[in-house]
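Researcher: Go.
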Amino acid sequence: MPRMNCNSFTRIIGIVAAAIFVWAAGASISPAQFHLPKVPSLAKSKTSKPATSEVKPSRAATGEVVSMMSPDSAPPGGHGQIVLTGQNFKEGMQLHFNCKGAQFSPDSFKVESSTRIVAQVTVPLTAEEGPCGTSMSSEPGKEPFRISYSANMPVAIPVVLIGEGDMQFMDMMMSMQKVLMAGYGNQGEQGRIVLEGSSIKYIKGGATSFTESTSGVKSMGEMKQGGKPVGIFRIVFNDGKIYNFGAMGNGTDAHATFEFLQKKLGK
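Model: Structure:
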């Protein structure tokens, strides 16, 4: 789980403070400010070619060799386990994935033997479709691993569940501020929206707060102030349930999270 840095925290607190000032000045803010969008058509998934035995293993100067990864692909936002098979793996080695649009390290990894590594990864939302290399590769992009929109791996997006129901603006802002203050330097306050198969759920600390069907999503809305996102969005379901979330990072990062979910859910 990535650690929220001080700059991100300061930016979000600034947004909360500004919003409270606007409210105190008597501004009238209604749920309409979520600007619920029209439902766009989903982008067609591209079919990626699976890695084959023709992919030559790459060797770095230190001697580590990766010959196979399983699974051999992951989607943007993918969250799960990858097993690397090869030669000369050892404790203390480093592992980084170098993909188009994103370079990232595993959340954790264990060298189980000189021929096997088990890594837990979370692929950044910015990763673009195509081949990836690793820090062990002398030929970036030649490793048997790639980013694929259609890869069969759960997608997990770090967010904070603010509350359930048609919450008023100030209730959401105060709740968000409370979560930020409690979670400063402690990412235990942050959970993940997980998309797996036809389900959408929220998981925090190993506990699942809710599980719904993706087909039951009615609409999504993003809260804005002065035409700019404030880092809060909601998902509305056909059965009337509403879940409100806060996205970490600055306004641009939060908006990117909202847009990514919109595209994945077709809303």
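Model: Residues 6-24 form the longest helix (19 residues).
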